[in-house]
């Protein structure tokens, strides 16, 4: 059975997960036949006002302390494959294998 390509990243590896379609490459989920979802209307901009999208690569513009730890993520750290989300910390990502949430005001889109 063939499913439609992912509207986010155009991957053809999509699959049906009960009530929705899922993309294993970018983790985008949508209802079959949906034109727009909440994720499609989510607008997140970096510190320079550049629009960010799921899967983008960003660079930290200042040192950030990790809450509940003595770890500091240094300015200039490159973060690949971000996911946008609702809330104050509107970027979900992995840094050194650990899942973290960042505020978009502390990153810039990598060129």
Automatic annotation (TrEMBL):
Protein YjdM C-terminal domain: residues covered: 44-110
Report the residue ranges that make up the Protein YjdM N-terminal domain in this protein: 3-31
Domain of life, source organism: Bacteria
Which Pfam family is one of this chain's hits?
Answer: YjdM
Q: Which InterPro entries match?
A: YjdM (IPR004624), YjdM_C (IPR013988), YjdM_N (IPR013987)
Tell me which NCBIfam families the record gives: phnA
Protein family: Belongs to the YjdM family.
What's the protein called, per UniProt? Alkylphosphonate utilization protein
Q: Which species is this record about?
A: Pelistega suis
Taxonomic placement: Bacteria, Pseudomonadati, Pseudomonadota, Betaproteobacteria, Burkholderiales
């Amino acid at each position: 059975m063939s499913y439609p390509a992912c509207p986010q990243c155009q991957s053809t590896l999509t699959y049906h997960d009960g009530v929705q379609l899922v993309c294993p490459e970018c983790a985008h989920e949508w209802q079959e036949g949906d034109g727009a979802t909440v994720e499609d209307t989510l607008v997140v901009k970096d510190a320079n006002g550049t629009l960010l999208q799921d899967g983008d690569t960003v660079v930290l513009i200042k040192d950030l302390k990790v809450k509940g730890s003595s770890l500091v993520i240094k300015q200039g750290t490159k973060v690949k494959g971000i996911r946008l989300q609702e809330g104050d910390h509107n970027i979900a990502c992995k840094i050194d294998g650990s899942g973290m949430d960042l505020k978009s005001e502390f990153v810039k889109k990598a060129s």
